[in-house]
Amino acid sequence: MILSHILPPFMGGIAALMAPIPCLATIVAEDSPIILSGVLLTLVVIYLSSKFGAEAARRLDFPPVLGELVAGVIVGVSALHLVIFPEGGLSASDSVIMTVLQGLNQLTPDALTRIFESQSEVISVLAEIGVIILLFEIGLESDLRQLKEVGIQATVVACVGVAAPFAAGTAGLMLLFHVAAIPAIFAGAALTATSIGITSKVLAELGQLKSKEGQIIVGAAVIDDVLGIIVLAVVASLAKTGEIDVANVIYLIVSATAFLIGAILLGGVFNKSFVAIVDQLKTRGNIVIPAFIFAFFMAFLGNAIHLEAILGAFAAGLVLDETDARNELDELIKPIADLLVPIFFVTVGARADLSVLNPTVPENRAGLLIAVFLMGVAIAGKLVTGWVVFGLPGINRAAIGVGMIPRGEVGLVFAGIGSASGILDKPLEVSIIIMVILTTFLAPPFLRVAFGSSTEPIPEPIAPVKAASE
Amino acid sequence: MILSHILPPFMGGIAALMAPIPCLATIVAEDSPIILSGVLLTLVVIYLSSKFGAEAARRLDFPPVLGELVAGVIVGVSALHLVIFPEGGLSASDSVIMTVLQGLNQLTPDALTRIFESQSEVISVLAEIGVIILLFEIGLESDLRQLKEVGIQATVVACVGVAAPFAAGTAGLMLLFHVAAIPAIFAGAALTATSIGITSKVLAELGQLKSKEGQIIVGAAVIDDVLGIIVLAVVASLAKTGEIDVANVIYLIVSATAFLIGAILLGGVFNKSFVAIVDQLKTRGNIVIPAFIFAFFMAFLGNAIHLEAILGAFAAGLVLDETDARNELDELIKPIADLLVPIFFVTVGARADLSVLNPTVPENRAGLLIAVFLMGVAIAGKLVTGWVVFGLPGINRAAIGVGMIPRGEVGLVFAGIGSASGILDKPLEVSIIIMVILTTFLAPPFLRVAFGSSTEPIPEPIAPVKAASE
User: Fold this and answer.
1) B136 pLDDT more than 80
2) pLDDT of residue B395
3) Domains of chain B with CATH codes
């Protein structure tokens, strides 16, 4: 018998199928099969749109990930309202999927709101697990020795890429737009953060992840992350109290550095135990499960010490990349990544509200002007990083600069916190959002053009999966 | 920069890392990174325990899935309280993982309760997706032509397996234990449902899923599911109103039958389009994503028409098994199943409260006596089904009978609804729970013994995955 939900969530299913009988189960238990329905339907929409987007982008000679982002925008808050989240004043009645569930189950408004929130929470966590797996896969594909070779270059690129847009953005806003010092510093800080997720996906799709340029970009993005967390903490602290909390800044610098270096050093020891353990296991999942125990634990650790979960997953991938099991693991992780990573990209697109780009709405116009300025600084401030690389003749400097451009979701954190704390007014907030959306969407084609001059794109491996040959 | 959570969930992470600054984000957004931490830590515990359990079981010559269930019991509500759910009066303070998160983040009791509930919801949905993928994989591994060959046999087995324990259980409770008619009928109905999840996993582990016996068991379990849903609806309706809602009974019979037969018939048409679509796709996930779109949509459909999600997933697997892409798909789905299916089995074990088995607690004793009787009926009532199989000389009748024994979670639905509606008193409810736990735990070794006499266990395939050769 296939009635195998688990108690009590499935009691709702039973209650639901007995239409003439008033509900016997508790209210929360009753929601559960409907939450599952909502999650399944949302996943179907996400997968359909991600495949349409990726295939369309490929046929137009764009990177597939750009297609997934655009597909997310189309099914999200900006257009079809299929995949939306309870934020920015959106409620269950705005969601097409919730309306479908409402029609199927005759739910009360309260129940629908609860189901909408639970379903959104599940999809959000799945998206976060998706980006954790993406960074784990990127860690697996990154060569630690090669990353060490470009370590100094990556550090220089990261530092310049944080300092240049921060300084130019803050100064420009104060001098050209007469913005007060604290909001100007906050907006300048919002220009600093590179989105490793989008850049590294595009690099992988171009077959450039292991090139010298790709390794510098990924390495710089990792260092950038550490710097970004520190900048955000410092700026938010400054904005709130008028002074900098030195102890916290030191804590963040030390913990982030210690975490990455510690993970890499411990990795040398852990490698051998990992292979020894995998060799002992005789049941299904003998490689996948130990690998994910490590990846998820490192992600938890990254989160627990107030860094980021994906920093831990990336470190776990770097460590396991050094083991003998890496080739099997590379193959086994692919279908898992294929299933979970698109949830991340589609939901990023789905959350981006393009209506702030509409110039016919008067209150958007002030933001648009500032946005044009911020866009210029955002692009120029990262482009220059390519030209600070030294001692590597023939390196593709434009590719490195372009690879650092996308700000992704990180800029949205700054906008969100700035807006919630009242530091940023509406035009500044909107212009940061516009800057984030455009850099995210423009960087993939730019990156393709930048690399196109020096290399032929390598077709990405598609299934059927062949056993990796050593 | 790797700060790539998505707005607003990650705002909490930022707020959390700025300890000296009061929270800037909303309350719900603030919880999100902690929910992610909880989910990651719970998954680490689930994977660690599932691997320990599976490997220990294998070394003791038991099926690995039994080890996963026992490991679930150990980490769950009965012992370590690592993986528990907000049910049966359990709160966040009972959960070891929540206590860890509390220690790391200095949460208020209210916030901790919210995080506990959200985290449990996410793990519950992941477990449900796990069993959906398990049934999809079982559908893929089931041979539709062979299943059609045993169709009549399976139908007979299912009908006898529902009727015999139902009649014997109800009569015995009324005559031997002087239970009133309606609770006796309810408890009798609780004896009818076979758990396909556990049986088919054990069959797969024994390499018997495609044997004639295995196909009869799986086929009967599917029909059993349809019968079980009808029996539950009828009995609950009877218990509530004193009469049977004929319209609903007819609706359930028609919709369940139409769903399965319709899916199989449509499958013949859909097969070719599926292969044609897959051939057109050039981006990563070209096989996995279309397959899961189909599986998740069918699961949604099963849920939406008030049947079961896993019935839809099983039908989807049956259909795709007929396509040319099946060999690649079989390989690609394995790591995905390895990652998600253990969540289901460990949480089933984790939710089972073994304290109702303790005979030193006086109120458990009445239940224990009835439980012994119900156990006898539960085993005998399914064992006889092996001997109603006709026209197949040399068939392993004991294996078929034993394969139908595990009641799994379904019996728990009956116990839960019966208790919530006041139909069942405490001893009857407890004895149903005991019956469910013991049949679930005893069937795997029994099944192994039953098959052991006729066949050698085939070692289950473990990674590294080799490319399937046609």
Assistant:
1) yes
2) 84
3) 24-125 (no CATH), 126-452 (1.20.1530.20)
Q: For residue B76, give the nearest of B51, B49, B56 by alpha carbon.
A: B49
| Geometric angle at alpha carbon A118, from A115 and A123, rounded to 5° | 120
The span from the CA of B2 to the CA of A232, in Å, is: 13
- Kindly tell me the sign of the dihedral angle through the C-alpha atoms of A162, A401, A209, B279: positive
In this structure, which amino acid lies at residue A206? L
Contacts of B332 in chain A (CB under 8 A): 335, 463, 465
Q: Which chain A positions have a beta carbon within 8 Å of B285's beta carbon?
A: 51, 335, 338-339, 342, 463
Question: Are B351 and A6 inside 8 Å of each other by CB?
Answer: yes
Q: Exposed, middle or buried, B182 (CB in 10 Å: 0-12/13-18/19+)?
A: middle
Quote the radius of gyration of chain B (alpha carbons, Å): 23
Q: How far is B212 from chain A (nearest CA, A)?
A: 18
Cis check for the bond before A8: say yes or no (omega within 30 of 0): yes
Residue labelled with tokens 């976060």: A128
Q: Tell me the C-alpha to C-alpha distance, in Å, between residue A157 and each of A69, B56, B284, B427.
A: 27, 50, 31, 71
Q: Would you say residue A8 has pLDDT above 50?
A: no
Nearest to A288 by CA among B3, B390, B51, B412: B51
Return the pLDDT at B243. 63
* Cβ–Cβ < 8 Å for B25, B15: yes
User: Distance between CA B29 and CA A31 in Å, rounded?
Assistant: 22
Contact A101, A38 (CB under 8 A): yes
Smallest CA–CA separation between A406 and chain B, in Å?
10
Give Cα separations from A362 to A67, A110, B45 (angstroms).
30, 36, 54
- What whole-number percentage of chain A has pLDDT above 90? 23
| Least confident residue range of A13-22, A277-286, A384-393, B415-424 | A13-22
In 3-state terms, what secondary structure has residue B285?
A: coil
> With bands split at pLDDT 50, 70 and 90, how would you rate the model's confidence at A455?
very low
B452 burial level (CB within 10 Å; 0-12, 13-18, 19+)? middle
Chain A residues lying within 8 Å of B344, measured CB to CB: 6
pLDDT of residue B292: 96
Chain mean pLDDT for chain A: 79
User: Can you tell me the ipTM of this complex?
Assistant: 0.81
The mean pLDDT of A291-318, rounded to a whole number, is: 85
